[in-house]
Predict the structure.
Amino acid sequence: MLSRRTFIKSALATNVALLARPSQALQQVLTGSEEIPLLVFADEHSAHSKHFISNVAERKSNIDLDIGQHFDLLREFCKESPMGQISGLTRDSDFFALEQIAKDFGFYTQYSATHHYSGNMLTHEVSSSKDSAELITSSLKNAKEQWPQWLANHMRVLPRGNAQLVTQKTQISLANTDQHDFLVSWSLSPNKNK
């Protein structure tokens, strides 16, 4: 009988082989007063992800790489930076694959949010610690069309550590909501209470 872990790893490997070749931008930077190592992923096919990654400090992008090629980079980062932070603005399937690999190294989701356009409405659904969920949700709402830039500029304020997640949702009406992707922003870090 397969263990749950073996099943997930097998399913993940199979699904990765079936994934379309998403173009990714990624970068590793040391910024902020705490100098926490940071690894950032963004889907280069999405205009919002491009806007996000262009606002992250010290850009060093690798473009046109299959997400499967990032697995070794992610594993290396987790080994070398056990107290680091991994963030991104990607498709949900990419987030799922990266999240599963990071869990093997003790990195867990501390923040995630879906960003969905429908008609002239933009919906942000934020899952985060109780203390920060309302602040992040209202900040994304106030940022309006510039929400990817807000995320890029505030990755360091995203929660870290072990906290119970709550979900908050906000909707805003925008004039231009043509052809936007369904994206997930997220942040992974090690649990502090280990």
Q: What stands out?
A: The mean pLDDT is 75. The CA atoms of residues 101 and 133 lie 25 Å apart. The two ends are 30 Å apart (CA to CA).
